[in-house]
């Protein structure tokens, strides 16, 4: 699958099909040649006798600050979460800042403090970093990249190829909060709602689940850009299996639903920053879910569907009355529609 | 075509004629009410919103009637089946039309 | 959500479905056309085909204002957008529609100032906030949306906003319905009539279909129970040999339409003698342009518009799919050269275009697999 687009567009960063085409069609053949590994949130690398998980993520959110969080907090939680869903506990992070000329120091200090708080809550250390400044107009205030390393959680090994028909799909909580909060915070649509980003570190929930169900955890992902539908489509493609979801099981806050209905958006395509999906073998699923429900922050975790042989490489959403539709991967950014 | 959503008027913007704040499941937006100037809506009314304009008021009465008609679906048929179960109308045509519930 | 959730009640949907099975004559094959793209989208989104008997065929009509917009009009709008100091403002629906030199989003990537708006009022607001730029609002939509454009133009004039204009592509629904009925390949039993257009024009404009063509029309809401109830009403009429216009969407559609909306349209807009519809050719009296009194806010009068005409690639069968003659999957390009990521025609880009709806929601569902679906979790 060669990458044929003549230029880079916003869609290529949106986390959906276009992003995947860029990674698989341009980056992978040149940078990951010979790897044979499926592209995942984090990589597990053998260093000496140890296995270390490593991941990196960049944060380019606009506005920098929004209800429920800010870029600094996202930068820490996002990387911790990538490590957590790959089955690793984050141990250390490094950070790079690209700062825009003219950025008020007070804004930068706010974000540093937000990062410090998030690092403290996540129990992870920042051990180094780098800073560059670019000319006015070139960085939306600031861009942050964090790279994290982690140690594998005992007994946890995730791989899309280990997923089997009959496995259950667990979701940690309500979807769409982050993406809709950001959309509203941009102010372009003149909508207001009592809504906040769900940004948080999900490691404690995953650790709690692992204690009860580690051998049964087949695959995990944090559904950020592109939403739940994109993450599950990636699983369907990587595993060659089908995913069937029950629409009424999927938790969505009223305000997220209202905004999506108003704008013609699908909640399954909206970004989350504090949720994760876990595919768990049926004999461990109840224990896994119970562990989540008993852990602070996991009260609304629920089973939203299961893996099946068909429809192969697709995600199907079913309703209680027997209707169904395919939920596809997002192409580019989710755009409001009026028709 | 035309995505239009029911919303409730939660306030009328003071000093601005025909501008109201409408709420849909907790999400609020200013909506232009001029298309309803013949019968201006009040706070608490439900309107249909499309691209930031209110298109019509929603009739609670008509909505209720529609729900009633939908609830009645199958009830006449169920009654018929019960009657047949008693064996009281052996000779009746099972496909005899149920009393029409539509307008 | 009130006035939404009640009309998605699963138990009532099951009842309505059972009633449809009861009413549908197994000897007959019903062909029902839903005019409106929003209905097409709803049918797919709610999986309604799964609760209908196989002898009811829902055919998708041309009521998708993005789908029927000729590519030349997009090129023209983007030609203006490329001028220095112009902001091209349009609904999200337009952003990925391919023009000859790329879609609005692709133009944005090359430096054109392209912005999404939810409302024409927001585009006017944008003009006020950017006094050193010119905001051109690329207006699309049927009669549902035209009144909002009209009101916005009235406001622009009343407030003396000079740096704002509208590129008007509003079209009207009745000529599209006539074109369908005139099509020799079409055999239809009835219509699911437009829901939201009818809040503006009312139900009377469809009476000629019932009277002259002897086909029932039921104006329908967009929730599952609305659509199913409309099908029930159509089946009852067909069973009784009737052909009337009925209003299923009574809670919202007034029989006589919205006089204030019609008035605003009449004051600001006027019918073009003819307009080209993608896939349907030139249709007279089928589209709206801005009246001369508002010429200062008419992009077509303020700017030199190239007047581009672009013919669709021969292989693309957008026209036949629009008219309901072909199903999306029957177009030779469907799913191969033409996909939502690389759309050849607007039917694959617009979320309510039949091709996109079919591709996104349906085409990987195997019949056999659907039959065995049971509730999970």
List the helices and strands and how they pair.
The complex is a heterotrimer of chains A (339), B (103) and C (377).
Chain A: H1 17-31, E1 43-47, E2 50-59, E3 65-66, E4 69-70, H2 71-85, E5 88-100, H3 105-122, E6 125-134, E7 142-152, E8 168-171, H4 177-185, E9 191-193, H5 203-213, E10 217-221, H6 227-239, E11 242-246, H7 254-263, E12 277-280, H8 282-293, E13 302-308, E14 315-318, E15 324-326
Parallel strand pairs in A: 5-6, 11-14
Antiparallel strand pairs in A: 1-2, 2-7, 3-4, 5-7, 8-12, 8-13, 10-12, 11-13, 14-15
Helix pairs in contact in A: 2-3, 5-8
Chain B: E1 5-12, E2 19-24, E3 27-32, E4 46-50, E5 53-57, H1 60-72, H2 75-85
Antiparallel strand pairs in B: 1-2, 1-4, 2-3, 4-5
Chain C: H1 10-23, E1 30-36, H2 37-45, E2 56-63, H3 71-81, E3 86-90, H4 104-109, E4 113-116, H5 120-129, E5 134-139, H6 146-158, E6 164-168, H7 173-182, E7 190-193, H8 197-201, H9 207-212, E8 217-219, H10 224-239, E9 245-247, H11 259-268, E10 269-271, E11 274-277, E12 281-284, E13 288-290, H12 299-302, H13 318-322, H14 354-361, H15 367-371
Parallel strand pairs in C: 1-2, 1-7, 3-4, 3-5, 5-6, 7-8, 8-9
Antiparallel strand pairs in C: 10-13, 11-12
Helix pairs in contact in C: 1-10, 2-14, 6-11
What would you note in describing this structure?
The complex is a heterotrimer of chains A (339), B (103) and C (377). The longest helix of chain A has 18 residues. Chain A has 3 domains: 36 residues, no CATH class; 113 residues, 60s Ribosomal Protein L30, Chain: A, CATH 3.30.1330; 167 residues, Alpha-Beta Complex (Phosphoribosyl-aminoimidazole Synthetase, Chain A, domain 2), CATH 3.90.650. In chain A, helix 2 runs parallel beside helix 3 and helix 5 crosses helix 8. Chain A is built from 8 helices and 15 strands. Chain B has a domain of 54 residues: Roll (SH3 type barrels), CATH 2.30.30. Chain B contains 2 helices and 5 strands. Chain C has 377 residues and is an alpha/beta fold. Chain C folds into 3 domains: 124 residues, 3-Layer(aba) Sandwich (Rossmann fold), CATH 3.40.50.11750; 131 residues, HypD, alpha/beta domain 2 (Rossmann fold), CATH 3.40.50.11740; 45 residues, no CATH class. Chain C has 15 helices and 13 strands. The chains are: A alpha+beta (339), B alpha+beta (103), C alpha/beta (377). Chains A and C meet through helix 1, strand 11, helix 7, strand 13 and strand 15 of A and helix 1, helix 2, helix 4 and helix 14 of C. Strand 9 of chain A pairs antiparallel with strand 3 of chain B.
């Amino acid at each position: 699958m060669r990458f044929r687009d003549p230029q880079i567009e916003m869609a290529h960063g949106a986390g959906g099909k276009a992003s995947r085409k860029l990674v698989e069609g341009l980056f992978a053949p040149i940078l990951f040649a010979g790897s044979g590994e499926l592209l995942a949130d984090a990589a597990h690398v053998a260093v000496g006798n140890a296995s270390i998980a490593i991941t990196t993520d960049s944060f380019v959110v606009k506005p920098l600050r929004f209800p429920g969080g800010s870029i600094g907090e996202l930068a820490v939680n996002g990387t911790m979460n990538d490590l957590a869903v790959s089955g690793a506990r984050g141990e250390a992070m490094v950070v790079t800042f690209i700062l825009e000329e003219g950025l008020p120091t007070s804004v930068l200090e706010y974000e540093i403090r937000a990062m410090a708080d998030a690092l403290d809550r996540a129990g992870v250390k920042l051990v180094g970093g780098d800073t560059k400044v670019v000319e006015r107009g070139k960085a939306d205030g600031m861009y942050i990249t964090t790279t994290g390393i982690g140690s594998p959680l005992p007994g946890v090994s995730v791989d899309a190829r280990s997923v089997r028909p009959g496995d259950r799909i667990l979701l940690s909580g309500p979807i769409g909060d982050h993406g809709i909060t950001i959309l509203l915070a941009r102010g372009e649509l003149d909508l207001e709602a009592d809504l906040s980003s769900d940004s948080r570190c999900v490691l404690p929930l995953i650790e709690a689940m692992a204690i009860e169900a580690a051998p049964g955890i087949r695959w995990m992902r944090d559904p950020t850009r592109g939403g739940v539908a994109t993450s599950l489509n990636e699983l369907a493609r990587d595993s060659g299996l089908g995913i069937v979801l029950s629409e009424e099981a999927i938790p969505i806050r009223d305000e997220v639903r209202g905004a999506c209905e108003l704008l013609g958006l699908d909640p399954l395509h909206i970004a989350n920053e504090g949720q994760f999906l876990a595919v768990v073998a049926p004999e461990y699923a109840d224990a896994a879910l119970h562990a989540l429900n008993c852990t602070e922050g996991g009260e609304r975790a629920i089973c939203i569907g299961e893996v099946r042989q068909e429809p192969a490489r697709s995600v199907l959403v079913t309703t209680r009355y027997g209707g169904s539709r395919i939920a596809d991967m997002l192409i580019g950014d989710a755009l409001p529609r009026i028709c | 075509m035309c995505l239009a959503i029911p919303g409730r008027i939660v306030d009328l913007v003071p000093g601005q004629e025909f501008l109201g704040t409408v709420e849909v499941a907790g999400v609020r937006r200013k909506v232009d009410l001029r298309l309803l100037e013949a019968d201006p809506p009040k706070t608490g009314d439900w309107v249909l919103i499309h691209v930031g304009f209110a298109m019509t008021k929603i009739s609670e009465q008509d909505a209720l009637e529609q729900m009633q008609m939908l609830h009645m679906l199958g009830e006449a048929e169920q009654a018929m089946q019960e009657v047949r179960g008693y064996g009281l109308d052996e000779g009746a045509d099972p496909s005899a039309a149920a009393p029409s519930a539509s307008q | 959500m009130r006035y939404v959730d009640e009309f998605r009640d699963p138990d009532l949907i099951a009842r309505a479905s059972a009633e449809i099975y009861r009413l549908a004559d197994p000897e007959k094959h019903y062909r029902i056309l839903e005019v409106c793209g929003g209905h097409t989208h709803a049918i797919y989104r709610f999986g309604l085909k799964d609760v209908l008997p196989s002898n009811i065929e829902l055919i998708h009509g041309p009521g998708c204002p993005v789908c029927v917009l000729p590519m030349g009009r997009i090129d023209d709008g983007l030609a203006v957008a490329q001028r220095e100091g112009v902001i091209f403002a349009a609904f999200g629906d337009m952003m990925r529609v391919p023009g000859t030199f790329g879609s609005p989003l692709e133009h944005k990537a090359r430096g054109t100032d392209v912005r999404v708006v939810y409302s024409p009022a927001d585009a006017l607001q944008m003009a006020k906030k950017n006094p050193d730029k010119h905001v051109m609002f690329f207006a699309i939509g049927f009669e549902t949306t035209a009144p909002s454009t009209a009101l916005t133009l009235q406001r622009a004039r009343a407030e003396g906003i000079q740096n704002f204009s509208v590129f008007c592509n509003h079209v009207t629904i009745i000529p599209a319905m006539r074109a369908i009925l005139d099509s020799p390949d079409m055999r239809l039993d009835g219509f699911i009539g437009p829901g939201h257009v009818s809040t503006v024009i009312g139900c009377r404009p469809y009476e000629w279909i019932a009277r002259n063509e002897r086909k029932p029309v039921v104006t329908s809401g967009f929730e599952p129970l609305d659509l199913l109830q409309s099908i029930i009403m159509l089946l009852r009429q067909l069973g009784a040999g009737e052909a009337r216009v009925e209003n299923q969407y009574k809670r919202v559609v007034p029989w006589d339409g919205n006089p204030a909306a019609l008035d605003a349209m009449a004051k600001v807009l006027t019918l073009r003698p003819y307009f080209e519809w993608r896939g349907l050719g030139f249709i007279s009296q089928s589209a709206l342009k801005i009246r001369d009194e508002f010429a200062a806010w008419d992009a077509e009068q303020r700017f030199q518009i190239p007047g581009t005409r672009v013919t669709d690639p021969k292989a693309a069968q957008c026209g036949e799919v629009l008219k309901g003659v072909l199903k999306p999957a029957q177009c030779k390009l469907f799913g191969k050269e033409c996909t939502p990521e690389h759309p050849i025609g607007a039917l694959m880009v617009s979320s309510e275009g039949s091709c996109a709806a079919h591709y996104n929601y349906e085409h990987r569902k195997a019949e056999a697999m659907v039959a065995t679906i049971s509730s999970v979790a």
